[in-house]
Specification:
Strand order of the largest sheet: 3-2-4-1-10-9-11-15
CATH architecture of the largest domain: 4-Layer Sandwich
Largest sheet: 8 strands, antiparallel
Number of helices: 19
Helix content: 25-40%
Bound molecules: fructose -6-phosphate
Shape: globular
Distance between the termini: 12 Å
CATH class of the largest domain: Alpha Beta
CATH superfamily of the largest domain: Aminohydrolase, N-terminal nucleophile (Ntn) domain
Radius of gyration: 25 Å
Number of strands: 27
Amino acid sequence: MCGIVGYLGDSNAKDIVLEGLHKLEYRGYDSAGISLYNLEAGVFDMFKDKGRVDHLASLLQDVHGSTVGIGHTRWATHGKVNRANAHPHLSSSKRFIVVHNGVIENYRMLKRDFLSHVRLESETDTEVIVHLIEMFAQTMEAPEAIHETLKLLEGSYALLVLDQQRPNRLIAAKNKSPLLIGRSDRGYIVASDLMALGKHSADYAPLEDYTMTVIERDKLAIYNRDYIEATLAFEPMDFDEDSAERGPYPHFMLKEIMEQPLVVRKILSHYFDEETLVINEAIVHDLRESDRIHILAAGTSMHAGLIGKHLFKILTGKPVEVHIASEFAYNPPALSDKPAFLMISQSGETADLRACMSHIREVNQPVVTLTNVRTSTLAREADHKMELLAGPEIAVASTKAYTAQLVVLTLLAYAVGKQRFNIKQELSTLAHAMETYLAKYERIDTLAKTVLTKPNAFYIGRGLDYAVALEAALKLKEISYIHAEGFAAGELKHGTIALIEENTPVFGIISDKRIALNTRSNLDEVKSRGARTVIIALESLSEEEDDIVLPDVHPLLVPVMTVLPTQLIAYYAALHRGCDIDKPRNLAKSVTVE
Ligand code: F6R
């Protein structure tokens, strides 16, 4: 979704803002824009267009040194993808320049009540902000005018504002959309994602909701909701630049698939002190005391939640419900006396989950967030957080964050439950088995090419394999655009089997001895109706003709293993179809709108 970067300091703002925008590309966008202070002319210039950041950079070839600038990548929500709707937006007199992430829900009302005399240049909700600032600035100083404007806004915003009359000042404000500020002896950088602060910050701080920050070269002032000066807690920047580089891989997705064994090891070394599993006691206590656990998540993270439910059932015996966040937010179930909530979110910014948070807060029961972004909004709003430690996931399609979710959920369920086995050993064995399998990853290439020739495909499985089938199908459709569905193997015959035609690909996942034969007979059913079946089975359950045979691992860890070939199948299918693998159409890495 939209990305924001701003810089004020002694370095070249053009380079830093463009570099930041490049770093934010992975979030998904359709237009890009920038405003830079032109030292010679003494004004801020603006450049924007639909298309990639590289295209924007080509418009800036003749632009030289600058000390202040703001940039934006837009993911359209209000209005078409075109130049006029791209950010920055200007006030009527061109005095104020604004970039904005988020959604202003009451923008129509604001337009009607305050701006009926103003000619708007775009269809965006953002443009009302810059005109309101200009309106208030007729009678007050710019920071106060911005504060007055913020009081009128309903919805979410991360904003950067420039003022032609005070070129050495950059003003930032936020509510519900992430915004972080980094500083070094060369200046300040403000961005919606840690990734863009990177090497330009010695330390950084996430801005709080309803705060406004006035940045000058030698002064940083923070104002709270009541326009009273507040403070910010900075922490050292510990972002590993290399982990966000593609290295020798052609795509981030492939790199991230291959990193998964490493992620399992990283989680082990973080959550174990020698042989002892160390999980925050308050989390374990709250979950043990609860009478029901509600897992809330979206997309791939929701698929991890389905496996989490199974893990908690086996290891703790507790009743667990899994909810699609966007459903729970407005149609929550009847709750028991002592529920606990587990939010699973790679980004920690998903708007559907934030909408759930408002509801959960009313019942005043514990919330634990499992997230890959320690500083994220959901991590900060929850009572407790657990880090996924997958490292930056740049490809839009989630792979290593999903497996990290499965591993952290296993550790959490193990800690809450009373069953004992050598979980550390089992996880080490898993990491090794994953490595062994991934070493031969290129074998999947031909399979994907020869099997996925039709516009439809199915993944089927039972139990945990069904949960993996859902994730496998999502991965395939989101990056290769082949229509794919995950099905409970036994359910296909109750209607959907009508879609099976000659050579329709049906992938069967077989990892559970109790039901392996049932799934095999479901595969026979579709095969006899023309389907091209592909069997993914654990070695101990495999038969001679099976297509993909995986090393056996502990039964609770099997999904981490079985998902691997399905990620590769999606990757190669997309590769053969010439798709933009890391940035699939219409998708965003962090979905900050409902
Ligand atoms: C798919 C994918 C999405 C996300 C979903 C939730 O590959 O990444 O389905 O899982 O948008 O995002 P998070 O986990 O950030 O809350």
